[in-house]
Structure formats: C-alpha cells, structure tokens
Amino acid sequence: MSKNSKVLNLKDKINGNEVDLSLCNLTEVPVRELAAVTKATVLDLSCNNIISLPPEFCNLTHLVKLDLNKNQLTSLPDNLGNLVNLQHLDLFGNKLTVLPVSFSQLRSLKWLDLKDNPLEANLAKAAGDCLDEKQCKQCASKVLQHMRAIQEEVDRAREKRLLREKELERKKEAKQREREAREKEARKREKAEEKEKRRKEYNAQMAALAAQEQQKKKNEEKKKKNGQAAGKVNKKAVVESPPKPKRSLLGLMLKLLLLLLLGLVGVAATCRFTDLQKEAMCVPVNTAVNDGISWAKQQEVVVRQLVQNLSSAAKEFLDSTQTSKN
C-alpha cells in the first residue's frame, strides 16, 4: 500500500475491472497491492506526483489500459516491454525525453499519447500531435515502428559488440596459441640443444676411451717388442751358455779328486801317527806311505808341479763356487 494517507483502502478504489488512483497525491505506486488485484485490467494513476515506476510495476502483465498523464515521470522502466497485454497508454504531460528500447515489444499497443513531453526530436516526430482518437492510434503505430528501428539498431550494435568481443577473444586466443607455440618451440630447441650437448659429451668420452685404448695397444706392442728383444738376448745367452756345464763338470771332478786326496791323507795320517799304526789294516797303508815318500822324494819336481796344479785347480773351483752363489 502507498505511504500516502489518502489511499487508505485500495478496495474503495476498485470499480469492476478498473482501479482509480488518480488525484491521490501519490509519489509511489502501490505495486504489491495492485498485483493482488489481477481482475483490474484498467489502472488510472493520473494527476499524481509519481517520479518513476519501479521495475516490479512491469510484473502487472494483466493491465490492458494504463493512464499516467500529468505526473512527474522522467523515465520508464527498462522492462516496460513485459506489459505484453497493454493496449492503451496515456503519458501526456510528463517529463519524458526518451522511451526504453523494450517499448518495441508492446505489440498489443493500439493507442498512445505522448503530448506535452520534452521528447527528443526523432521520437517527437514519430509521435505526432495525437489530438484525436485517430492520431493517437497513429502515434502508437509510428512510435512502435520507431522503437523497433531503435531496437534493431541496438541489436545490431550489440551484435557488433559481440562480434568485436568474439574477435578480440579470437585474437586473444590466437595470441595465446602463438605464445604457447613459441614457448613450445623454445622448449623444443632447449631439448634439442641439451640433446646435442649430451651427444657431444658422449662423443668426447668415446674419443677419450678410444685414445686410451689406442695408447694401451701401443704400450702392449711396445712391451711385446721389448719382450721379443729380451727373448733374443736370452736366447743368445742360452746359446752362448752351453760351455758352462763343462766348466761345472770339471770343477766337480776336481772337487771329488780333492776330497779323495784329503781322505787318503787323513787315512795315512791316522795310520801313521795314531795308535792304529800297528793294526793290520794300517800296515799296507804305512808301507804305501813310506813307498810314496820315497818316490816323492825321487819325484820332488813332479810333485811340486802337481801341487801347484792342484792349488790352481782348488782356487779356480773356489772362485767358481763363490760366483755361482752370488
């Protein structure tokens, strides 16, 4: 219900299908109360101080006739086109300059009065004078045509805007794809460079291993050559060494002879200078020793030469023994 004290009971204002709220000094429209009276298809709000209609007012889709003349309206709701059953609209004596674009959706509108409003030029030209029933009907028809043209312009502008937005979005997506492609290409190059780097490192390692292997082969060949040379030297030494066994055999014979002589001397000394000289086994030994002494005296020169030879042989034997030990 309106806050105006003059509108205390809406039922008192209803007459059949008409609600008369004219001359009630209203500044606001009691939309909630009017919505409850769905049988009221005619609403008279003329001669009040209404400055604007709330968007909820356009939910009163059962309205067929609406009188808003001589108010203070400066604009109408953008969703005015929701009043699809509206056939008669009186906006005389307000402060309107333009109509909402949705006005073009009032396809049932047959009568319209826009006199005494500061309309913009093109709208005023379309509205005409509206001095009688015929002119008001023409006003409704021409204003609807005018608003449909504006609606088409708005639709075209919106379509262009949507196309521009789509184009901008397309360009944005294209730039995004291009950026992603560049990033992908950069990553691909980085991977290729990294792969090439690894390949070069691998080749360098293989080259180093090959060089080591080559050096190893050279060292082995060198050792083999040195081994062959040493073998030749050893072979030569082996070839030249056969005389040694003869020398060793001669020394062994001399050694045995020396031992034999020493043994004979020991036996002779035992039989001659000990208590065994009287024994039967020493008699022939002493006899041989005496004979030998006699013969030796006779062969003193020969003995001396023999001793010298024995001494030389013994010295040579000792030297060879010492050398073999070293």
TrEMBL record:
The membrane-spanning stretches of this chain are 249-271
**Alphabetical keyword list:** Coiled coil, Endoplasmic reticulum, Leucine-rich repeat, Membrane, Microsome, Nucleus, Repeat, Signal-anchor, Transmembrane, Transmembrane helix
- Membrane topology designation: Single-pass type II membrane protein
Q: Where in or outside the cell is it found?
A: Endoplasmic reticulum membrane; Microsome membrane; Nucleus envelope
Does this UniProt record's set of keywords contain Membrane?
Answer: yes
Q: Which domain of life is it from?
A: Eukaryota
| Gene3D superfamilies xrefs | Ribonuclease Inhibitor
Cellular component terms per the entry's GO annotation: endoplasmic reticulum membrane; nuclear envelope
An example Pfam family from this entry, by short name, is LRR_1
Q: Where is the composition biased (Basic and acidic residues)?
A: 169-202, 214-223
Region spans: Disordered: 169-243
Question: Quick one: where is this thing mainly located?
Answer: endoplasmic reticulum
What is this protein's record name?
Leucine-rich repeat-containing protein 59
